[in-house]
């Protein structure tokens, strides 16, 4: 009889006999593979925490006890064990289905939402401190990945934990991967913390030896101190966490359910913050995920038998924007050794894996540390190098202070290339890149541009690297436009738009991904209204080509801006400001994402229709403005 369909919450997991747990783990893995093969998702991370998640729900009781998952992309098993194994889980990451991350609005068992790395420990310290203040007795458990230790905010939380709470359980889920393999000193330290066979044998041998005498028995009573000193003798690093006042236990095998459960029960009764180091295998149970952990960290639909992607695209289909960018950066770096590429643990997602392979000496992966990436780039730029930071729009938010204070204030020549600008439909609000135009427009010394096609991206990247100033280029997720790239890039005049279609009555100013939408809208408007409709490729969100905009507005009945970003404070707002500064009162309609957090859905088309941005909805909006 299947076990998983009977699970409605932690009590049902706790009611199972230990002998039934391996079967439950197998059913969960089969369920994960079946659903993610259809919908895509974070396959490897969830397959790696099946036993750990089962043990957590056997030892602790949510929602009274609070689980905080770092990023929470590994929370699918938690969802299955807390009453969400039904049609909602079948539709995870699709329109109307469950979120691919924890979501406070989805379940009481999701005490803290997430989506960005490194946030779990700080949130858990806050939750534990609140529990202490309120006189409650619940447990707080933070599940963090080894890659989270490269995030500055995690280290800040470690520094504060022992002084802020009386009791906290931290699970360090160590699988040696974030998205790509972990890099840097923290990864080296954790590798040294893996208990060697010689340490295990020496510890057991010493215990047997000392236990044979009265003096030895007294020594054994030191317990924790004895173990720590023996471990230090072999690793010299095991006290890393204890220097922060956090008791360190482990590492243990994260797939040995009885062992994990035993140690969790010990941690549950411990006083003060305690960290349990758990070793897991990312992608366990799916051969393809074990062989290619980076691909199966987060993937689209795939064949569960072979692991082959199902959405491979038609032969000759345009490359993804990030891959186009990656090839262009290699070309620029080969032509100029001052060009250096920087990624924050996402070489494939940003396209920088191409630079890593072609010119490893001009490539840097700094781990999940966007703030450091921006500051590191500023340091390089201060010595007249030309660093290119490739960071998703949503993750660049984390380095905003560095963008303002360290790059733009000093007018250093750092180029930020922001992938996933616009919506990332199945990932949802934590991953949409909708705010970069608004948060960058207000910063002095910023030039912000977006290409309509691959050839224009080539020109923009070349222009940015030649400018000697802070430059920002944004482009969306998914396939590019399919435009051929000329052999030699050209310099683009800064702040100059491009007229694609002349017109008089209505002028459509579109940015990047919205240029094709503007062309369709112009055709429909001309057909239904009989008016002369022009289309402008704005190219620059800052500075806006005020000269062209004002000249067109003085002759037009209506100006319409189209942008793939938040309309509040965005490109259209900048156009309004430019017209106001020149005393032009021509009506202006702003088409962009509305002032609320946009959810997740199966595709971009569905999200646009749900937010008033389908072709027919935009046409109706413009026609209403004309009336």
Question: What is shown here, in short?
Answer:
The protein has 627 residues and is of the alpha/beta class.
What's the structural blueprint in terms of helices and strands?
Elements: H1 10-15, H2 21-39, H3 43-47, H4 50-59, E1 66-69, H5 76-80, H6 87-90, H7 120-134, E2 140-145, H8 152-164, E3 167-174, H9 185-193, H10 197-210, H11 214-220, H12 224-235, E4 247-253, H13 257-269, E5 272-279, H14 287-291, H15 321-335, E6 339-343, H16 347-350, H17 353-358, E7 363-365, H18 370-382, E8 386-390, H19 393-396, H20 400-408, E9 415-418, H21 436-441, E10 447-449, H22 454-467, E11 471-474, E12 498-501, E13 506-510, H23 515-529, E14 533-537, E15 540-542, H24 546-555, E16 558-566, H25 571-581, E17 588-593, H26 604-610, H27 615-626
Parallel strand pairs: 1-2, 2-3, 3-5, 4-5, 6-7, 6-8, 8-9, 9-11, 10-11, 13-14, 13-16, 16-17
Antiparallel strand pairs: 10-15, 12-14
Helix pairs in contact: 4-13, 7-8, 10-12, 15-22, 18-20, 23-27
How would you characterize this protein structure?
This protein folds into three domains: 294 residues, Thiamin diphosphate (ThDP)-binding fold, Pyr/PP domains (Rossmann fold); 154 residues, Thiamin diphosphate (ThDP)-binding fold, Pyr/PP domains (Rossmann fold), CATH 3.40.50.970; 129 residues, 3-Layer(aba) Sandwich (Rossmann fold). The protein contains 27 helices and 17 strands. β4, α13 and β5 form a beta-alpha-beta unit. It is globular and about 75 Å long.
């Amino acid at each position: 009889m299947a076990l998983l369909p009977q699970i409605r919450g932690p009590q049902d997991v706790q009611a199972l006999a230990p002998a039934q747990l391996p079967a439950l783990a197998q059913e969960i893995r089969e369920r994960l593979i079946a659903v993610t093969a259809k919908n895509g998702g974070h396959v490897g991370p969830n397959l790696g925490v099946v036993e750990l998640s089962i043990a957590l729900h056997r030892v602790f009781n949510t929602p009274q006890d609070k689980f905080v998952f770092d990023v929470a992309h590994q929370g699918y098993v938690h969802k299955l064990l807390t009453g969400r194994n039904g049609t909602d889980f079948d539709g995870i990451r699709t329109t109307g289905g469950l979120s691919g991350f924890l979501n406070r609005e989805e379940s009481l068992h999701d005490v803290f939402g997430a989506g960005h790395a490194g946030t779990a420990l700080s949130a858990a310290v806050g939750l534990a401190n609140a529990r202490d203040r309120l006189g409650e007795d619940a447990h707080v458990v933070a599940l963090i990945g080894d890659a989270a230790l490269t995030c500055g905010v995690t280290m800040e939380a470690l520094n504060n934990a022992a002084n802020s709470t009386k009791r906290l359980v931290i699970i360090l889920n160590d699988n040696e991967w974030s998205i790509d393999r972990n890099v840097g000193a923290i990864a080296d330290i954790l590798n040294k913390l893996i208990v060697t066979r010689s340490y295990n044998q020496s510890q057991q041998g010493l215990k047997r030896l000392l236990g044979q005498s009265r003096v030895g028995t007294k020594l054994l009573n030191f317990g924790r101190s004895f173990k720590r000193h023996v471990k230090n003798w072999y690793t010299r690093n095991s006290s890393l966490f204890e220097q922060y006042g956090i008791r360190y236990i482990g590492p243990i095998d994260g797939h040995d359910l009885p062992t994990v459960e035993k140690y969790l029960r010990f941690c549950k009764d411990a006083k003060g913050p305690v960290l349990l180091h758990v070793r897991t295998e990312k992608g366990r149970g799916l051969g393809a995920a074990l062989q290619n952990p980076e691909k199966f960290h987060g993937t689209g639909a795939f064949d569960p038998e072979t692991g082959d992607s199902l959405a491979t695209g038609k032969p000759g289909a345009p490359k993804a924007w990030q891959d186009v960018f990656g090839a262009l950066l290699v070309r620029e770096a080969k032509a100029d050794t001052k060009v250096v590429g920087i990624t924050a643990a996402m070489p494939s997602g940003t396209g920088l894996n191409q630079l890593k392979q072609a010119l490893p000496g001009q490539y840097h992966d700094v781990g999940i540390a966007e703030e450091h990436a921006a500051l590191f780039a500023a340091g390089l730029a201060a010595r007249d190098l030309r660093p290119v930071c490739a960071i998703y729009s949503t993750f660049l938010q984390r380095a905003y202070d560095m963008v303002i204070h360290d790059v733009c204030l000093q007018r250093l020549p750092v180029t930020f290339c922001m992938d996933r600008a616009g919506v990332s439909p199945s990932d949802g609000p934590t991953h949409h890149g909708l705010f970069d135009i608004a948060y960058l427009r207000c910063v002095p010394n910023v030039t912000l541009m977006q290409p309509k096609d691959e050839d224009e991206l080539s020109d923009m990247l070349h222009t940015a690297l030649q400018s000697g100033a802070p430059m920002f280029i944004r482009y969306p997720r998914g396939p590019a436009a399919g435009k051929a790239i000329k052999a030699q890039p050209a310099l683009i005049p800064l702040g100059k738009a491009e007229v694609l279609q002349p017109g008089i009555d209505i002028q459509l100013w579109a940015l990047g991904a919205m240029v094709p939408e503007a062309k369709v809208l112009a055709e429909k408007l001309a057909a239904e209204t009989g008016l002369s409709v022009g289309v402008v490729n704005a190219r620059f969100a800052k500075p806006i080509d005020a000269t062209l905009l004002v000249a067109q507005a003085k002759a037009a009945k209506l100006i319409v801006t189209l942008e793939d970003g938040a309309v509040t404070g965005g490109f259209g707002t900048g156009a309004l400001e430019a017209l106001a500064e020149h005393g032009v009162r021509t009506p202006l309609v702003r088409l962009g994402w509305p002032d609320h957090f946009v959810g997740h859905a199966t595709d971009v088309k569905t999200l646009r229709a749900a937010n008033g941005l389908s072709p027919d909805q935009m046409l109706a909006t413009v026609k209403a403005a004309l009336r």
